Fold this protein.
Amino acid sequence: MIETRNLTKRYGNLIAVNNINLKLDEGDVFGFIGPNGSGKTTTMRMIATLLNPDHGEAYVCGKSIYTNQEDIRRLVGFMPDFFGVYDDMTVIEYLEFFCAAYRIPADKRRAICEEKLELVDMSFKRDAMVNELSRGQTQRIGLARTLLHEPQVLLLDEPASGLDPRARIEIRNLLRRLGELRKTVIVSSHILPELADVCTRVGMIEKGNLIVDGNVAEVMQKARQRIVLNIRVRERTEEAAALLEQCDSVESVNSIEDGLIVITLAPETDDYSDIPSALVESGFAMTLFREEEVNLETAFMELTKGLVQ
């Protein structure tokens, strides 16, 4: 559905996007992760045909961004991070206005608007003035507007930016629903833990370079250089830590804080059954034995260097 080949954009001596190669299939929800200024928005605007690249190619549903711009704009729904609304329109009028802009027949507009309002759970605001909506409600109306012409591809630039926790959860649920509808979605964000719940794939971009691209499990595995265990014993914590340092599978005891022992296992260790056995045999009662999870935020910190343009 989306393919880029060495997609590049320069601004003078600044390389905003550097030879991006990406391929997304139908139903993929791609989390595009990177700090401000890393090239996320520039990449999405080139795919949407709103910005011409200096080098490389991109295809949307098999159509070139150079020779099929009008066709691509019918296939793509682009939602920028900030967009304007009109002071003198109700929500339903606002959506019908954009239906007209998309050349949707007049006799079908109202039904389509009602359908999209229901999809984003905003039917109860159909007669409210758009300039009186909360930030989260405005984002959902913006998403409904993006969906009016039934695009196959959605490019959502920071849709959860500036939202309170409840509104972010609502946007996350909407993204999950769009994936179920077999839309191909690119969603950029720096709210990392929430993307892991809804994305089938993630890409990490830094200083214009796509440094990581894969499904969520692959990225987590790449970030995990060592297995880390959290262990807590009922008493004699210092003695337990000293014992663990002698186990063959333990590379190091990282810390002992508030009774919690954090250890890192030796490289390529996948069987660490000797650790609980050693503790039990030495009379220690364990109250916690847990493998520390690698989340998307941890993976981002591990795999990137913090570079910006």
